[in-house]
Amino acid sequence: MGTPTLNAFSDELKGLDIVEHNFKGKLSRLSIKLIKSQINEFQPNIIYFLTNQAITNGLIAARGSNAKLIAYRGIGANFGVFNPIAWMRYLNPRINRIVCVSESIRTSLANINKFGLGLKPEKLITIYKGHDLSWYEGIKPKEGHPLSKDKVRFICAANWRPRKGLDVLFQAIQLLPEALPIEFIVVGSGTDQETFKSMARSTSYKASIHFIGFSREVLAWMAASDVSILPSIKREGLPRSVIESMAMGKPQIVTNVGGSPELVRHLKEGMVIPPSDPSALAEAIMSMAHKHKERSEMGNSARQRIRDSFNIQKTIDEIYNLYISVLKNQNKLSK
């Protein structure tokens, strides 16, 4: 949500050719033509596809090229071998390697197999998306209304999708005892819809639930919070909001879904609870609300974990090693 844009790396990007392009769909003559022209001009050894549309258009554009093709997968598998679109993307034999953003995603892709059709395990590799703690220096927390100085602030930062489990959060709030010194900040596109506001009004904390909706100041809201919550129910990748708030020293409440438990170790960087379990979430909120010292320790551990295990330099090194491996073993991977 707050990851720096290309403009933030202007000095580092000097000497690189950047061609901006918005894909118009799964198959676009304009996109195919543009990618094809770049391939013909630069004759790349490797082409790295980062989105579904980049894959479907790029695979056609790469016909006749000897470049090795790498695809990126950021969420769990939601396709099978009988899905024709899957063969236009990740199951296409022309793809040499697939970078999975978490080990849970790698496992879900490895399990796609019917009648001998599916993904070869050797095509799959887990590379975490690293961050740099310096990206979060100098971020000033939000102050004043609607925030209270004497309450523990819980933030849920996520662009709304059914799988994000926001309804579970409000069900959990309904189970909380009255008058706890807590408040909730809900920020992200689509999170301020009437469905959730109605659920909030049915709780005893209706005056302490702040719907921010879409905001360009997500990191400032995180900085003003004490605990981060992500109640995902399925198909989570390696949640950026969790990484960002961990980098800012915030303890976490996450579900045992996707890559979240790979980031957060239970009772070290926060609490890991079962998905779709309002009671477990309510218990975690109450526990965090009453434990100031533990919150501080978990927050410090969260920041250190990003620094040590999910840092950008580690990601760069692993991507570089992948490129070298693909070029050295190009004949093996195409068999």
Topology of this structure?
Blueprint: H1 29-42, E1 46-49, H2 52-61, E2 68-73, H3 84-87, E3 95-100, H4 103-110, E4 113-114, E5 117-118, E6 124-126, E7 152-157, H5 166-175, E8 182-187, H6 194-201, E9 209-213, H7 218-223, E10 227-230, H8 240-247, E11 252-255, H9 260-263, E12 270-273, H10 278-290, H11 292-309, H12 312-328, H13 330-333
In short:
The chain is an alpha/beta fold and 335 residues long. It has helices at 29-42, 52-61, 84-87, 103-110, 166-175, 194-201, 218-223, 240-247, 260-263, 278-290, 292-309, 312-328, 330-333, and strands at 46-49, 68-73, 95-100, 113-114, 117-118, 124-126, 152-157, 182-187, 209-213, 227-230, 252-255, 270-273. It is built from 13 helices and twelve strands.
Description:
- The chain is of the alpha/beta class and 335 residues long.
- The chain has two domains: 6-130 and 312-333, Rossmann fold (3-Layer(aba) Sandwich), CATH 3.40.50; 133-309, Glycogen Phosphorylase B (Rossmann fold).
- 37% of the residues lie in helices and 16% in strands.
- The protein has 13 helices and twelve strands.
- The protein has helices spanning 29-42, 52-61, 84-87, 103-110, 166-175, 194-201, 218-223, 240-247, 260-263, 278-290, 292-309, 312-328, 330-333; strands spanning 46-49, 68-73, 95-100, 113-114, 117-118, 124-126, 152-157, 182-187, 209-213, 227-230, 252-255, 270-273.
- The strands form three sheets. The protein has a six-stranded parallel β-sheet with strand order 9-8-7-10-11-12, with helices on both faces. It has a four-stranded parallel β-sheet with strand order 1-2-3-6, with helices on both faces. The chain has a two-stranded antiparallel sheet with strand order 4-5.
- Strand 1, helix 2 and strand 2 form a beta-alpha-beta unit.
- It starts with 28 loop residues before the first helix and ends with a helix.
- The model is unreliable at 331-335 (pLDDT under 50).
